[in-house]
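Researcher: For the annotation table, I need C-alpha cells for Glutathione S-transferase. Please keep the output clean. Sequence:
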Amino acid sequence: MQYVDESLSDDQWICGQRFTIADAYLFTVLRWAYGVKLNMDGLTHIESYMQRVAKRPTVAAALKAEGLN
C-alpha cells in the first residue's frame, strides 16, 4: 500500500492527470482493503484519492444505488 500511496503523491490519478479504468479498479480494491480492516494508517495520499474518486458524480451515484455510501 505504501507504493500506491507514494504513486499518488505526484498525480491526482493513478495513471497521471486523467481518470482511467485503472482508477475505477483501484478504488474498488481499496474499498475492499478498508472493508477487511487493512491498516491504512498514514497513507494520506490514498485517503485523499478515495475522497476524490467518491466525489465523482457517477461514482457517488453508483455507491448510493448499491447502498455503499
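Researcher: And a one-line annotation?
Model: The radius of gyration is 12 Å.
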